[in-house]
Amino acid sequence: MKKLIIIALAFIGLQATAQRKDGGPKNNDRGEKMMNLTAEEMATLQTKKMTLTLDLDEGQQNKIYKINLDNATQRKAMMAERKAKKEAGTAEKPSKEEKLKMMNDMLDHKIAEKAKMKKILNDEQYAKWEKSQAKKGHKKRGGKDSDKKGKNNKKD
Fold first, then answer.
1. Cβ neighbour number for residue 128 with a 10 Å cutoff
2. For 78-82, 132-136, 148-152, which range has the lowest pLDDT when averaged over its residues?
3. 3-class SS at 121?
4. Do 57 and 125 touch, CB atoms closer than 8 A?
5. How many CB atoms lie within 10 A of CB 148?
6. Least confident piece of the model among 14-18, 80-84, 111-115, 118-122
7. Which has the least CB within 10 A, 33, 80, 138, 151?
8. pTM (2 decimals)?
């Protein structure tokens, strides 16, 4: 009987360690694939995805394409800058002041993008877009378990 239990535990242990060999659900090649796309291609893909999700008309597609193109151009420039620093060996962790400035710039950009989207989309589309943005942020923070580990898990 003991041997059966030991064998069962061994199989369970093997099963648990053999679940994922690629390091989890994250796709590490995604950033590299995106580097191979031009800013125009990235903007086109993003606009088409938004068109499918939000049911955009032609005018909305054109306005959102311009926003997506600006965002993609900025991202490509930042990725190229980081890559150049990394290859040159001059990549350093940003100081506290630099981190604060980057966070402020990012939040200002998000506020401006949100205002632009509010002008372009109708109420229903805007609500759907906001919901998708919240999901994206939730995925980046680690999903459902992120609140359990974070500081936001306060009990009253």
1. 16
2. 148-152
3. coil
4. no
5. 9
6. 14-18
7. 151
8. 0.65
Give me the pLDDT at residue 81, please: 86
How far apart are the C-alpha atoms of 129 and 149, rounded to whole Å?
Answer: 28
Q: How far apart are CA 73 and CA 139, in angstroms?
A: 24
Q: DSSP class of residue 36?
A: T
Direct distance between the N- and C-terminal alpha carbons of the chain, in angstroms, rounded to an integer = 49
Which residues, 6 or more positions from 153, have their beta carbon under 8 angstroms from its beta carbon? 147
Q: How many residues appear in the chain?
A: 156
pLDDT value at 32 more than 90: no
Contact present, 68 and 43 (Cβ < 8 Å): yes
DSSP code for 22: S
Could you tell me if 40 and 69 are in contact, meaning their C-beta atoms sit under 8 angstroms apart? yes
